[in-house]
Amino acid sequence: MPQKDPCQKQACDIQKCLQANNYIESKCQAVIQELRKCCARYPKGRSLVCSGFEKEENPTLKPGAK
Fold first, then answer.
1. Mind giving me the DSSP string for 21-59?
2. pLDDT classification of 27: cutoffs 50, 70, 90
3. Beta-carbon neighbour count of residue 44 at 10 Å?
């Protein structure tokens, strides 16, 4: 049986918050921060729901950016 994702609850909380707030991300910043904190507690690759945040940590410069 696969192990439960340690940050699944926070990911679900984000979805609930977004749905309740007409997908206005700014109204869910506290919940999003909780997921970021959870992701920071586990090694890279341990949580599937954190993979988007892991990619976000090393953003590539957009063309024309300085």
1. TTT-GGGGHHHHHHHHHHHHTS-TTS-GGGHHHHHHTSP
2. very high
3. 10
